[in-house]
Amino acid sequence: MTSLAVTEKQAVVIGAGPAGLMAAEMLAAAGLSVTVCDHKPSVGRKFLMAGKSGLNLTKVEPDDAFLNAFTDAKGVLAPMISAFDSAAVQEWATGLGQELFTGSTGRVFPTVMKASPLLRAWLVRLTEAGVRINTRWDWTGWDADGLVFETPDGRQVLQPDVTVLAMGGASWARLGSTGDWAKVMASDTPFTPFAPANVGIAVDWSSHMEAHFGTALKGIALKSGTYRSRGEALISRQGFEGGGIYTISRGVREGHPLMLDLLPDQTVEALTKKLDQPRGKMSMANFMRKALKLDPVKIAVLQEMARPLPQDTKALAKLLKALPIKHAGLRPMDQAISTAGGVKFDAVDDALMLRNRPGVFVAGEMLDWEAPTGGYLISACLATGRWAGQHAAAWAQKA
């Protein structure tokens, strides 16, 4: 049996991503002795990977629009996000010495466009607050009220006054989010099975598309079910990737067709009028390139998905506005940016404490919510980690 530091109240946080580290910060600020345990050799691995594309911390937009990104879970998450909103996230990051900027779409990034300086400063703050971090500590469940870990030094059991679980979802397993914790908890905790979110669409391309691999479809609109996007779609060897695709991937997961509007700023009528012009001896591809300003990659995708093209100009115009994408479903869950599913909100109270395990709180992607990329994911992980940490501290101090 391993003992924690001897203080009045002791806390363990399992998971060293943004939700777990934020919970640890709140617990330490409340005067508890805090130990963070993570099964990887270093902390914040997925956080650092997210930072390779710029670390989109949050988004500046009206509160209602921000909350709407969380769809089914927005009502539950609203008080947590309101308590640590976009402005608060920015203040927290600048407090860690990070200069920020807001892009034209409202997305907020560190000026250095990476996560490592912020994470280093955060770890310094946590260390100065007395937080201890154990790496290569793999949580395997409970032994009565004790937390059991497999560690480089063998089996260890910790018995804190309060626990925060923040072990992530089930994407990017090599970075730590394996979802293995579900095997431990699913037997007595209401749980929604994991599903890929913010994920690419698999397409079995013909050889004609190889020349366009690595090229982005720009100036398009995408829809699947109720989900809409004006973002880009990158053509990869495996299919479609990119922010525009990730936004509507939930619709595909739910079984809706994927539709592509190649010219969203023009109407069917306007396109039909242009297509009705004489084309002489030009091929249809050249004619569309000149008459519609349709670039080669858009023409290639159009032909890939709808060859032979209709001869009727209005039918062709309608196809340009609503091109059905033939695909092979979502890319594998481990290739997703995030996952849907997790511990149901019915399983926790308003403080995010498990109803069947008093003193155990849950935060971050372990909970059953999802949101598109664009600052929402990290922002909500920080907000739920903060909420769980504060309420865990309050619970421990009353116990």
Structure, described:
The protein is an alpha+beta fold. The chain folds into two domains: 10-196 and 337-398, FAD/NAD(P)-binding domain (3-Layer(bba) Sandwich), CATH 3.50.50.60; 201-324, no CATH class. The protein has helices spanning 18-29, 45-51, 63-68, 74-83, 86-95, 116-128, 181-185, 243-253, 268-275, 284-291, 296-306, 313-321, 376-398, and strands at 10-14, 33-38, 58-59, 100-102, 107-110, 132-135, 138-143, 146-151, 154-158, 162-165, 191-197, 201-202, 216-217, 221-224, 227-229, 233-236, 239-241, 259-261, 323-324, 338-343, 360-362. The strands form six sheets. Strands 6-2-1-10-21 form a five-stranded parallel beta sheet, with helices on one face. Strands 12-17-16-13 form a four-stranded antiparallel beta sheet. A four-stranded antiparallel beta sheet has the order 15-14-18-19. Strand 7 and strand 8 form a beta hairpin. Helix 9 crosses helix 12. The longest helix is centred in the C-terminal third of the chain and has 23 residues, at 376-398. The radius of gyration is 24 Å and the shape is elongated. 46% of the residues are buried.
The first-level CATH class of the largest domain is given as Alpha Beta
Which structural category fits the helices and strands? alpha+beta
Radius of gyration: 24 Å
CATH level 4 superfamily of the largest domain? FAD/NAD(P)-binding domain
What fold name goes in the CATH topology slot of the largest domain?
Answer: FAD/NAD(P)-binding domain
Gap between N and C termini: 23 Å
Number of domains: 2
| CATH architecture assignment of the largest domain | 3-Layer(bba) Sandwich
| Tally of alpha and pi helices | 13
Strand percent estimate: 15-25%
Strands ordered across the widest β-sheet: 6-2-1-10-21
- As residue ranges, the low-confidence spans are 1-7
Please describe the biggest sheet, giving its number of strands, its sense, and whether it closes into a barrel: 5 strands, parallel
> How many β-strands, per DSSP?
21
> pLDDT average, as an integer?
95
Share in helix: 25-40%
Choose one word for the global shape. Answer: elongated
